[in-house]
Design goal:
The complex is a heterodimer of chains A (113) and B (113). Chain A is mainly β. Chain A is built from no helices and 12 strands. In chain A, strands 2, 5, 6, 10, 11 and 12 form a 6-stranded mixed sheet that branches. A 4-stranded antiparallel sheet of chain A has the order 3-9-8-7, with no helix packed on it. Chain B is mainly beta and 113 residues long. Helix content of chain B is 0%, strand content 56%. Chain B starts with a strand and ends with a strand. The chains are: A mainly beta (113), B mainly beta (113). At the A-B interface, strand 5, strand 6, strand 10 and strand 11 of A face strand 5 and strand 10 of B.
C-alpha cells in the first residue's frame, strides 16, 4: 500500500540552528512529493514540491528539500530556524493517477529561544 | 480575498444531529477536496470533485454526503452525527488535480457532544 512516513513526531531546535525533518515514502513508482506547513489554527500551506529533475528543490520561507531515490526519502531542511517556523510540518505524496495527496502523520517543530 | 473559505469555522453539536459545512474557492480551480484531520493531526482524504463530478470517495460512512453545485463550491453534509466525527475538516482546491498542489481553507472544527 502507498504510504508516507514521518519518523519524528516532535522536534525541538534552538533559534538559529539548522533543521532537518525526515520523510520516507512507499510507492510503486516515484510519486510527486510535497511538504506542507500548518501553523496553529490554520490550514496547510505548500512549502515546496518535487515532480522530477533536480533532486534539490527550493521552497518558500528559506526551506529546501532533497529527493533521494535510493533511500525513498524527501527530507526537509532549513539552515537557520526562526521562531516563526514553529508549526506542524507534513510530508505528502501523490500518485500521478490518483488526484489526491497521501499525508504523513506530521512532525511538530518547536523552536527554543 | 480568501482563496478557499469554509463556514462555519467552529461547530458544536449533539450526537444524532445533522450539520453542514460549506466551502467556496475563488481561485478558478476545477478540483475540490474534503480532508479530515483527527485529534492526532492525521490528515485523510474523504472526497474529491472535479468539475462537479465525484472522482474520489474514500471509505467514508454514507452519513457523509458531499455536494458540489458548481466547481467553485463543495459542501459537506453529515447526518446522524457521532462522537467519532469530532475532527477538523479541511476543504482544499487544486487545478487539474494531478499535481497535488493544494490550497487549503482554514478548517472547520466540529465537536460532537
Amino acid at each position: 500500500a502507498q504510504s508516507v512516513t514521518q519518523p519524528d513526531i516532535h522536534i525541538t531546535v534552538s533559534e538559529g540552528a539548522s533543521l532537518e525533518l525526515r520523510c520516507n515514502y512507499s510507492y510503486g513508482a516515484t510519486p510527486y512529493l510535497f511538504w506542507y506547513v500548518q501553523s496553529p489554527g490554520q490550514g496547510l500551506q505548500l512549502l515546496l514540491k518535487y515532480f522530477s529533475g533536480d533532486t534539490l528543490v527550493q521552497g518558500i520561507k528559506g526551506f529546501e528539500a532533497e529527493f533521494k531515490r535510493s533511500q525513498s526519502s524527501f527530507n526537509l531542511r532549513k539552515p537557520s530556524v526562526h521562531w516563526s517556523d514553529a508549526a506542524e510540518y507534513f510530508c505528502a505524496a501523490s500518485d500521478t493517477g490518483r488526484r489526491a495527496l497521501t499525508f504523513g502523520s506530521g512532525t511538530r517543530l518547536q523552536v527554543q529561544p | 480575498d480568501t482563496a478557499v473559505s469554509q463556514t462555519p469555522k467552529y461547530l458544536v453539536t449533539q450526537m444524532g444531529n445533522d450539520k453542514s459545512i460549506k466551502c467556496e474557492q475563488n481561485l478558478g480551480h476545477d478540483t475540490m477536496y474534503w480532508y479530515k484531520q483527527d485529534s492526532k493531526k492525521f490528515l485523510k482524504i474523504m472526497f474529491s470533485y472535479n468539475n462537479k463530478e465525484l472522482i474520489i470517495n474514500e471509505t467514508v460512512p454514507n452519513r457523509f454526503s458531499p455536494k458540489s453545485p458548481d466547481k467553485a463550491h463543495l459542501n459537506l453534509h453529515i447526518n446522524s452525527l457521532e462522537l467519532g466525527d469530532s475532527a477538523v475538516y479541511f476543504c482544499a482546491s487544486s487545478q487539474g488535480g494531478r499535481t497535488g498542489e493544494l490550497f487549503f481553507g482554514e478548517g472547520s472544527r466540529l465537536t460532537v457532544l
